[in-house]
Amino acid sequence: MDEHQSEQRICYRCLVGGRVQGVFFRASAREQAMRLGVTGYARNLPDGRVELLVCGEASAVGHLRDWLRTGPPGAAVTGVACEPLDFQQHPSFAID
């Protein structure tokens, strides 16, 4: 294996429940994603949860998934459910 070969690239769709709307959860997730080099999106769902698609190198996606368990100050996360998806290329991390 070439030492310059990049890590495996993966995607997850995550649903985050709790007090996660109206507390800058999506904007904070975008900041974290950009810092980690992760792409995808975050959007509010009508049932009060936030849905995220997180794609990138496995370790970076793992760090963002860990962050989702706490979120930004003001959030009160009660649950995170993530399912793996086939890798998808996204130009950035969007807030929908």
Explain what the structure shows.
The structure is a single chain. The chain is α+β, with helices and mostly antiparallel strands. The chain has helices at 25-36, 58-68; strands at 9-19, 39-44, 50-57, 76-85, 93-95. A 5-stranded mixed sheet has the order 4-1-3-2-5, with helices on one face. Helix 1 runs antiparallel to helix 2. The model is unreliable at 1-5 (pLDDT under 50).
Output the keywords.
alpha+beta; five-stranded mixed β-sheet; disordered N terminus; 5 strands; 40% strand; globular; 2 helices; 96 residues; single chain
Query: Can you tell me the residue ranges where pLDDT is under 50 for at least 5 consecutive residues?
Result: 1-5
Structural class: alpha+beta
Number of helices: 2
Estimate percent helicity.
10-25%
Q: What sort of overall outline do the alpha carbons produce when their principal axes are compared?
A: globular
Q: Write down how many β-strands occur, each being a DSSP E stretch of 2 or more residues.
A: 5
Distance between the termini: 38 Å
The residue-averaged pLDDT reads: 94
Strand content: 35-45%
Strand order of the largest sheet: 4-1-3-2-5
Radius of gyration based on Cα positions? 13 Å
The profile of the biggest β sheet is: 5 strands, mixed
N to C succession of SSEs = EHEEHEE
